[in-house]
């Protein structure tokens, strides 16, 4: 049975819960449109304050997940996984509760409309009441919520988040936030009743309250330890993220709201609080843990750039799709793109752990269209080269190149860097061997004929040679007889006749298995017979134009079940699924292979890499 007041009344409403703001918004709009002025001014203030509080949490969320700024200041080095993100999905429930309670207070006390904008006495009174009432009230309530029934049925929800995050601050039960509303409301209400309240006091206190709660749950140490060395008494008046993180790892200590003074008075200060804070703050200037594997990704387009975890965490935790709410942000994304083009270097965007190995994703600050600008290619190669040399310098074992970062016309599939730096210790991997294996294993064993576009590319060549060995007839679409014959000569003599050059799409009008390695238009797709399945390794994927046909996704694999700290999706991939070129680097690292995988694909290694991937628990998405 659910404990009383543990569930939120609107938890089943989904996004429709925001309609609860409707009465406030309607009252403001009505006054604005039909009356000379907004009579119920506090309805507007409540909406603005809720938006401001949401923005504070969002900004702290963005900062704490901007890993290229915070990775060396992280207190708990683990990542926030999908399970925690889902649990904290409705972290903003408390904003609705506080808005409704504030609206009730406005109805009961209409004199609130007469509050002045500024009154310095109110801030002094507020601070005094916060220290003498709110802090001890929260401290003792918090201690009681860590005992028996209250912890099991209420507070354990908050502590179910193993890695703290600014949204964790709002992740609690209905009862807990009712009490928190009392804690935050007493100083404001008392100051107003004593005649020294003001609108700026309400805005300031609520904002500061949320700011400090987000700070404590940020998992990033931002308070320099030198402050407490110069002003020792200050450590009893302001907690730190490290201080509160210890409460989540060792729950019998550090109960205070913002002031450790009350823990000191209650003898509940964790003995390691200051030492750990000093260590994390001091070590922030040092290099952190070296990743074993790096996937070097790139942007796709402006809209997808907002799929990064440090933009919107919840949006990044689901497969990318264009959303209406993103469109107003496009001008900002465009400005950021120009700034990155001019000044930015490769940066860390996400990470996860796999069997004790740290895997990171670095991003080259370039978008898809820039890879096809002749004047931009040299700069892109420079960024990729810098990333490889940095990985080599710090001790990364394997670095895998994403789709456009290994473009043949750009750098020969990574060959340029390996030949230029023959003494590289880091292994450079294009991952195309596993990409080919994924595509080939999607093709039914009884297929006798396939149509292949992009037939003379690295992947096209490998797929054609592999299939002809299986006695599958391959219709290779290419206008270059010379390149076709070169590939044909690589095939065993008794298999060469299975490779057939075609120059028009009409040649495949009776073939129901298309392997698309070059983007094709809806008109070109129209030559496929009904029931055709389009396998593809083209970026971006082709448009699903034909309703009487089926379309495969880009080659991808699901990471093993024991992956830890994974909380973001790789572009359009499902949760836990990565592009095959990413997975190829993972396999390379787990196997401990010491060769580079660049340039042409070794067809003889396709089955070897495929079996190694399955051995380590990676699975094809199509088998799920």
UniProtKB/TrEMBL annotation:
It is found in: Membrane. Its main location: membrane. It comes from the Eukaryota. The chain crosses the membrane at residues 15-34, 41-60, 94-112, 124-141, 177-203, 324-343. The keyword NAD does not apply. GO terms for molecular function: iron ion binding; oxidoreductase activity. The keyword Transmembrane applies. InterPro entries: CER1-like_C, Fatty_acid_hydroxylase, NAD(P)-bd_dom_sf, Sterol_Desaturase_Related. Keywords: Membrane, Transmembrane, Transmembrane helix. GO terms for biological process: lipid biosynthetic process. GO terms for cellular component: membrane. Residues 128-268 form the Fatty acid hydroxylase domain. Residues 450-620 form the Very-long-chain aldehyde decarbonylase CER1-like C-terminal domain. It is a multi-pass membrane protein. Belongs to the sterol desaturase family. This is Fatty acid hydroxylase domain-containing protein.
């Amino acid at each position: 049975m659910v404990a009383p007041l543990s569930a939120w009344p609107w938890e089943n409403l989904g996004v429709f819960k925001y309609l609860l703001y409707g009465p406030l918004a309607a009252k403001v709009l009505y006054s604005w449109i039909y009356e000379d002025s907004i009579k119920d001014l506090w309805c507007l203030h409540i909406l603005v304050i809720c938006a401001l509080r949401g923005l504070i949490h969002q900004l702290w969320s963005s900062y704490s997940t901007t890993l290229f700024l915070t990775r060396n200041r992280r207190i708990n080095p683990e990542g926030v996984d999908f399970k925690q993100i889902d649990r904290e999905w409705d972290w903003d429930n408390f904003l609705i509760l506080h808005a409704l309670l504030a609206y009730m207070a406005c109805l009961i006390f209409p004199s609130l409309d007469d509050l002045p904008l500024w009154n310095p006495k109110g801030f002094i009174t507020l601070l005094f009441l916060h220290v003498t009432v709110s802090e001890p009230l929260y401290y003792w309530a918090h201690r009681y919520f860590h005992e028996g029934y209250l912890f099991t049925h209420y507070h354990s929800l908050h502590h179910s988040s193993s890695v703290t995050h600014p949204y964790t601050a709002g992740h609690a039960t209905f009862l807990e936030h009712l009490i928190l509303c009392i804690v935050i409301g007493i100083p404001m209400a008392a100051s107003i009743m004593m005649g020294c309240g003001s609108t700026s006091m309400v805005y300031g206190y609520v904002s500061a309250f949320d700011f400090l709660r987000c700070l404590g749950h940020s998992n990033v140490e931002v308070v320099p330890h030198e402050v407490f060395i110069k002003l020792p008494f200050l450590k009893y008046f302001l907690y730190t993220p490290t201080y509160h993180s210890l409460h989540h790892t060792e729950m019998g200590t550090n109960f205070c709201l913002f002031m450790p003074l009350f823990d000191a008075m209650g003898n509940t200060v964790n003995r390691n609080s200051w030492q750990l804070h000093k260590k994390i703050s001091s070590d922030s200037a040092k290099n952190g843990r070296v990743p074993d594997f790096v996937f070097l990704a790139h942007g796709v387009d402006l809209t997808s750039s907002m799929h990064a975890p440090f933009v919107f965490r919840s949006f990044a935790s689901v497969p990318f799709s264009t959303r209406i709410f993103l469109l107003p942000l496009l001008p900002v994304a465009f400005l950021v793109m120009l700034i990155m083009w001019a000044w930015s270097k490769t940066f860390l965007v996400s990470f996860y752990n796999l069997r004790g190995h740290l895997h990171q994703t670095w991003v080259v600050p370039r978008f898809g269209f820039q890879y096809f600008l002749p004047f931009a290619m040299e700069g892109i190669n420079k960024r990729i080269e810098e990333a490889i040399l940095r990985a080599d310098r710090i001790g990364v074992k394997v670095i895998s190149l994403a789709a456009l970062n290994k473009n043949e016309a750009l750098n020969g599939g990574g060959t340029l860097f390996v030949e230029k730096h023959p003494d590289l210790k880091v292994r450079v991997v294009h991952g195309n061997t596993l990409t080919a294996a994924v595509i080939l294993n999607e093709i039914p064993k009884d297929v006798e004929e396939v149509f292949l576009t992009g037939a003379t590319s690295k992947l096209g060549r490998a797929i054609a040679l592999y299939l002809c060995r299986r006695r599958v007839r391959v219709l290779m679409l290419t206008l270059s007889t010379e390149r076709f014959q070169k590939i044909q000569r690589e095939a065993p003599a008794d298999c060469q006749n299975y490779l057939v050059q075609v120059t028009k799409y009409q040649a495949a009008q009776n073939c129901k298995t298309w392997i698309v390695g070059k983007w094709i238009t809806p008109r070109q797709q129209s030559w496929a017979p009904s029931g055709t399945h389009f396998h593809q390794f083209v970026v971006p994927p082709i448009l699903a134009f034909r309703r009487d046909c089926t379309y495969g996704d880009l080659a991808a694999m699901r990471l093993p079940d024991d992956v830890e700290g994974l909380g973001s999706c790789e572009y359009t991939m499902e949760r836990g699924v990565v592009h095959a070129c990413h997975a190829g680097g993972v396999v390379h690292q787990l196997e401990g292979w010491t060769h580079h995988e660049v340039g042409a694909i070794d067809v003889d290694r396709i089955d070897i890499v495929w079996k190694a991937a399955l051995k380590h628990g990676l699975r094809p998405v199509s088998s799920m």
